[in-house]
Amino acid sequence: MTQAAVTQAAKRCFRYAGIMTLNTVRVNGMSTVSDNLNPSGSNSGSPSGNGLSVSQLQTLDEVDEYFETGKKVTNDMRQQGFTDRVLPKYPITEFLNILGLSKKSKEVETLRGVELHEYLKNKLVSGDFIYEISVPETVNSSNATLGDALPYLKEGYKIMQNINAKTIHSILNYGVWLNIAFHIFECNKGAGLVKCSWGNWLKQNVGLSDSYARQYRELSTKFSRYKKIHYVSITFTELWKRKLEIYDMLNSDETIAKFWMGIENNQTQ
Fold first, then answer.
1. DSSP 8-state secondary structure symbol assigned to residue 232
2. Among the four 57, 93, 136, 248, which has the fewest Cβ within 10 Å?
């Protein structure tokens, strides 16, 4: 992929992502996206001598595929008003990393031990997952009071917390299946029954990227046996960022570990 192609793809990327400010440099009096595609400056491990790793080159291929398919989709829409094409995954995070323009994620406060335990306890929800937030058929705001709306606001917020917890529950359970499948795949590969990589097999047959699968598998390995963690109302991103502190908390305090495994203990209630 030429530098010009990367530059054009980058510009399209930022338009789609809603990012209006780019890091630019001046070349012969013209502004262009910086060509420092490898912020580390290292060319080691590059299969083509351009400083990009195999995974980075794969990301560029995925960017190409996304925009090429997008072009076909827009052509279909202009010509016939509909399309049967499906847009592939757009690896925006990985692409921004290659360009050295990674989005800075919001830092989470570091909590450890008992403090972290109490924080997570306050995020626990019941196992009765409810998903529907009802809306009134008619609303007369001139006659209604905040007191009228408050019960619905509280109930709706509880439902949204349940959805977060259900996501964590699903990820931890799904990770179990991913670990089982990975073990089967490795056995089959050792027996010569499959030739491709695990990542390629997963992408082709499931549609899931290996990077997400690794995260799900790691979280499941660390936490799936702790029943109450399945009902913590935090986002997947927060669980991933806190995974080491939570893992350390569970392995350094037996009383806390028993609480999260669902073994009742008065000292942790």
1. B
2. 136
Whether residues 25 and 65 share a domain: the answer is yes
Residue 228: give the domain boundaries.
Answer: 113-268
**Nearest one of 129, 105, 146, 141 to 233, comparing CA atoms:** 129
Question: For residue range 15-44, what is the model confidence (pLDDT) as tens digits?
Answer: 444 433 334 333 334 443 344 434 444 444
**Residue-wise over 132-162: b if at least 16 C-beta within 10 A, else e?**
eeeeeeeeeeeeeeeeeeeeeeeeeeebebb
Phi, psi of 8 (to 5 degrees): -65, -40
Are 245 and 128 part of one and the same domain? Answer: yes
Number of domains comprising the chain:
2
C-alpha count within 13 angstroms, C-beta hemisphere, residue 40? 11
Structure tokens at 195: 């030739």
Backbone phi and psi for residue 249, each to the nearest 5 degrees, phi listed first: -60, -45
Let me know: does 90 contact 15? Beta carbons within 8 Å.
no
Strand partners, 24: 33
**Residue 135 and residue 37 share a domain:** no
If asked whether residues 86 and 9 sit together in one domain, one would say yes
In-domain check, residue 188:
yes
Kindly report whether the global pTM for this prediction surpasses the value 0.85: no
Kindly give the parts of the chain with pLDDT less than 50: 1, 6-7, 10, 13-46, 267-269
pLDDT at 18: 43
Which of 68, 98, 128 is the last residue before a domain boundary?
Answer: 98
DSSP letters spanning 110-152? ---HHHHHHHHHTTB--S---------S---TTT--HHHHHHH
CA dihedral 137, 138, 143, 146 (to 10 degrees): 40
Do both 90 and 175 map to the same domain? no
